[in-house]
Amino acid sequence: MPTQARPASLLFALRPKNQDRLYDLYADLRGADELHWDRYLDAWVATSHDVVSATAGDPRFSSVRYPDIDAVSEELRPLARVLSRQMLYSDAPDHARLRALLSRAFTARAVATLRGRIQEAVDRILDHAAPTGRLDIVADLARPLPLAVICDLLGVPEEDRSALSAWSDPVAAAIGNSRLDADDSRAASEAMEEMLAYLRTLLSRKDAPPAPHTLRALLATGTDDPGQDVDELLANSALLLIAGHETTTHFIGNAALALLDHPQAADQLRERPELIPAAVEELLRYDSPVQLMLRRARHDLDLAGRSVAAGQTVLLVCGAANRDPAVFPDPDVLDFERPGGRHVAFGYGPHFCLGAALARLEGVVVLEALLTRLPGWSLDGPEPSRLRSLNFRGLESLKVSFTPTR
């Protein structure tokens, strides 16, 4: 009887030559086995929508990333301690408690009030670019816009925002990679410590009362509560800052590139702008900014016909689930009128992205602006390069040229 070929390792996704065929690689993995053991990553890898969505919300699995801090390298240990206090890597009841506190800043009503500020920021960026006929969508728009929005919510002065962005980058790189050398681990830990020191000072300021209903106002209330762990609040402030702009940055870049690669789809949105909210969902599915979720088995259990041992890691590949033909017919086609099917770009279950409504709003405003204000846009230079990350999928830059306007 012939032996079934071992599925390729998910690590192959890190190879530059595989970035353009990432979803073909996922299809090969899913076709070989929807849940397989990756000996290079020492983890189970799930690639079907069914297994990914079911496992993401399964209470038999933990979201704790570092169950044993002492087992982490000395250089990474300070970062691991902070991440272990964040709701993204917490389980019930801590997760629900932290989420309840912070979610008030992300209600539909609270997010809707931000539209004017988002529109103003986008218009300012495009007003500056319009006469030149050139724009780096990542560097000039996708990176500064979400950072400005989340910094507004945290009450961060404009002069401090570049520092926060610089601290965020090495931390995001550490979160997105499974294997770090000592220098990268040390840089990420030091950046997180500097960010926390800044946020501690920011939240303790009494000279400028925070605006009501902003994150800073909620967090300031928490720091006045003797029962609240201030270090825990600071850790989650850092999470919101990093996640609040890194993922949206990658989404905007990925979405713009998809529209450049599919000019007929872009034309469809220009002719039918009412499709833009649906287009945001489809573009999130088509090229997700977050590719992985991590879970650990709390005890020995069966999953998709496999025996998973207590403590073993399961990597849920959102990008593969979002191209699963069992849920999304013709998954490699960009279809803004696609019926049914729920993508997992924002996760699934209790850890569904807290800032999803804000990311969607930013996506709608940006797409509307790009499609109406960059006439005749096209790539300006070679194909853009991708970040080298297992967890995050994004672009280093995306330079376009268009017909200059006044």
Draw up the topology in text.
Elements: H1 22-32, E1 35-38, E2 43-46, H2 49-56, E3 61-62, H3 77-83, H4 94-102, H5 108-112, H6 115-129, E4 134-136, H7 137-142, H8 144-154, H9 161-175, H10 182-204, H11 215-223, H12 230-261, H13 263-271, H14 276-286, E5 292-297, E6 301-303, E7 306-308, E8 313-317, H15 318-321, H16 356-373, E9 378-379, E10 399-401
Parallel strand pairs: 2-8
Antiparallel strand pairs: 1-2, 3-5, 4-10, 5-8, 6-7, 9-10
Helix pairs in contact: 3-10, 6-16, 8-12, 9-10, 9-12, 10-12, 11-12, 12-14, 12-16, 14-16
Tally of helical segments: 16
Tally of domains: 1
Largest sheet geometry: 5 strands, mixed
Rough outline: globular
Q: What's the gyration radius in Å?
A: 21 Å
CATH topology: Cytochrome p450
- Overall structural class, as computed from helix and strand content, comes to alpha+beta
Q: Return the string of H and E elements.
A: HEEHEHHHHEHHHHHHHHEEEEHHEE
How much β-strand is present in the residues?
5-15%
Helix amount:
40-55%
Give a structural overview.
With about 400 residues, the chain is of the alpha+beta class. The protein has one domain (about 10-400): Cytochrome p450, CATH 1.10.630. It is built from 16 helices and ten strands. The protein has helices at about 20-30, 50-55, 75-85, 95-100, 110, 115-130, 135-140, 145-155, 160-175, 180-205, 215-225, 230-260, 265-270, 275-285, 320, 355-375, and strands spanning about 35-40, 45, 60, 135, 290-295, 300-305, 305-310, 315, 380, 400. Strands 1-2-8-5-3 form a five-stranded mixed sheet. A hairpin with a 2-residue loop joins β6 (about 300-305) and β7. The chain starts with about 20 loop residues before the first helix and ends in a 5-residue tail after the last strand. The mean pLDDT is about 90.
